[in-house]
Fold:
Amino acid sequence: MTTTSTTPPQTSVAASARGLTRTYGAADRAVHALRGVDLDLPAGRFTAIMGPSGSGKSTLMHCLAGLDPATSGAVTVAGRELAGLDDTALTLFRREHIGFVFQAFNLLPMLTAGQNILLPLELAGREVDRALYDQVVSVLGLTTRLGHLPSELSGGQQQRVAIARALVTRPAIVFADEPTGNLDSEASAEVLGHLRRSVRELGMTVVMVTHELDAAAYADDVVVIHDGAITAHLVEPSADVLVAALRGRNR
Amino acid sequence: MRTALLASLRHHTRRYVASGLAVVIGVAFIVVTGILTGATREGLTADVGAPVAGVDTVATVDDPQAAQRLLDEAAARDVPALGLGYAMEPVARDGVQLAASADIGEASLTPSLQWQELEEGRFPATAGEALADVNAAKRTDVGVGDVLRVGTGAAAREVEVVGMVDSPAALGASLYVPWQVLSGFDGTLWIDAVAWGGSADLAREIAPAAELEPATDWVAERQAEIARGVDVIAIMALIFVVIALVVAVLVIANTFAILFAQRQRDFALLRCVGVTRRQLRRSVRVEALLLGIVASLTGVAGGIALGFGAVALVRHWFADMGTASLPPVWLAAGFTVGVLVTVAAAWMPTRSVTRVAPLAALRPDTGVDVRSAAGRGRLTLAALALVGGVTLLVLAVLGHQVPLMLAGGTAAFIGVLLFGPVLVPALIRLVGRLPGAGPVRRLATGNAVRNPRRTATTAASLLIGVTLTTAVLTGLASSRTALDVEMDASYPLDATVTAATDPLETGLADRATALDGVDDAVTLEGTFARAADVRLPLVGVGTRPAVVRGPDDLVPRDGQLLLPIALVEELPKHLADQVYDDATLTLRVAGRPITLDTVVDDGWGRSGLVSAATLARIDPDPQPVALWVRAADGADPEDLQGDLAALAGASGAALEGGYGNRSWVDLQVDVLTGAVVSLLGIAIAISLVGIGNTLGLSVLERGRENALLRALGLTRRQLRRAMAVEGLLLAGVASLLGAALGLAFARVGVEVMVQPAVEHVVFAVPVVQVAAVVGVAALAGLAACVLPARRAARVAPAAGLALE
Structure:
């Protein structure tokens, strides 16, 4: 295995993993989704995690986000060690520090766009930061859509609502799981542009799982994963470097 | 297709459990009713023939006098004959009353007509001997050798118990005395048939109107009569079975609708790979059929077990219950009804299955989005049913027409059910928006109203049970209030102890008041008068005593004498005629004659009532002669009777009063209330299974959504609470709506049914009972979502998100 790891510029770390493994199933039929991953995700940057289907990229994201417990190893998010937190503590931690954007089925169908955006704050019983809310809504171009139900929005608009929801709590880190998986190329470009703007203009940290090269091109950094292990961590790679890193395993 | 069908059944077994349970309960209900009916009928008809086994002929008469003539003549001519009937008379032992009104039957002195089963002692040989029933004697501890005084006043007779017998329910009495004694109680004696051992000609000669028939025919008729009585009860029970089954249909139909909605993609995929519309429809209908068969078999088996258990339990207290047997017709009917109900309930949902386009399988999965709403046709129908129903109800109230009321009530209720998809979500939103709502309640409210039709059907099942229960409880409470007023008028005094020969002991009122079941007691002064040779206690009443109930004060005008009818009957004929014809009575007090105006009335025991002034005029030195008692609420009538009898017995006085009758009527209303509520409880139980089921299936449907919420920061506790609140909202709104409807229907029912029968009808709302029904139903709805909530909360967010 060739590890072409370049250390990113020294900034603070939003999330990190050390010796992270995740195994599913019983011993004889165990599936090793992650095999000892070490990773630091810098704050204030847009990082893409790339890999083919079944490479473990979604599992990595779920473990980093505290949605799925690690089999062994350590995960630290916003300076907090996740191992040892019980379900409730983990949930409270998630709603304080982590934002999510999923591929599909992102919004609750019975709530309007505005209600969906404010849902995490409501669940946490937190005050709405009006200034941030207005800023997020306008950055994502949702000002005129807040009263609509998800079924009345286009796919791209739905994903923008999901992004707004992830940002409005001012989380330490936002995880986006294939956020453009269900969108056509035009809507994809729009959503990815908004994700990048939220990093640039709002100073957020975004980690995106994707298998699309075009999507990864919007990111600052790219982490490449194959068969449950990280094969590259590239800082602002050019398209050629990125393609090379993705093909690296087959070479 | 069969592979897919079997695989689907295996895969979805657990999802069918709840709807299966609804069928199981309904079928078991039918089977238990059948077994109980059979055992009751067997028990009641057994040994009906025993009293006439010794004769070939039974003479039936319309006129009790004819029966008495037959028996008198039979005794005179030494022809074997037995009166089939009884007198109702008080029974006392050693001056202490054992029963205010015991049924007294005839004990034959002819060995061939001594039909009772002797348990101890022997049969009577002379007129002064009697038989006592062992079951009746258990309470009073009567045994062989006891001397009992039967009847009142001059008609009273003393008999010695020489044997203890066991007698069947249908013709049993508490005490059996020879005809010579029984014929003396002609005031309360009722005999409509005579077991006749003589010739038919002789019977016709004595009583030309008597209808003679072979004893076997008479027995068959009696058995048929009893069986009809039992059948009426069975039919009443079946009404509740029907209600339970209607609820079961709603639960099953809802289950299938939800399951099919969730399996749309499976169905579409099957259509894609070449399954025809018809094959698909048949496949899901076979699923329903198999579910119906399995659930009905389980219900039959469960019903048999429950029925045998119930019969054994009842036999423990009620010796006349027969043995349990398997009623093939009931078993078959239960099974068939169970299968039919399941298939019928699944019919509508299966129609929608076939509308699935094969393309649905190819669309990206956006989660199950089964929004359903009320169609315009449905709303029109609802409005028609509601308006028509209300109109019929108004007409029913105006004309006191019960059939109109039933038709109107049913139509109006169906109207409400059809409005459900609009009405129920609106109410849930209203309740959900009550102040103090947090995110959990808002979430729960949103979830509860997401599928208006599903929500409405789930609520409807509970609505039926709660509406009927509330209506019945309120109707019975109003009837009870009306009855109480009637009882107050008929029985102004709960209990009276009246001196017979000597004045009452002083301090009796204090001792009576100290008794547990006594609320208040007063001693009244009076004197003893004589009317010919009848000793007649006179009680002076000045102002209305505090213990008197009802509208009548029991205060006579000056110079007036209130006489109970029983006392008038005791008087010699010329004096009784004076009372009836002239409304006066001439008495002697301390040797002086005095004539008073009489009014015949009843309710205060064996004494005449005069005003205090009249009493002072006829006896300047009155003595205590009567103790009037008001019972405490809920006092046990037997205990009160026993305690007061002990007091009365010691002073040689007679005990009477209306409390026994009052509490007997109360008990009947209580038993009726309990029976109806527990029978309706079965329907409510089925609907609660339905609520749990709807929520449980919704949990499966909302797997991704719940995972998303968990990822966004909803804690496990919050998720569980949201589910609980959803169940509570659903059950609570259904119960409140049901209670409101039930009260409205009860109001109509009271106007239509009770008003014409009883005066002074008051519409009484049993607030505590209705609140309890609503509370229990709402809390049970809460309990019904414990399992679904736990299941929902158990799923880890990542696993939920991976659900496809």
Observations:
- Chain B touches chain A through 29 residues (CB under 8 Å).
- The two ends of chain B are 24 Å apart (CA to CA).
- Residues 364-373 of chain B have pLDDT under 50 and may be disordered.
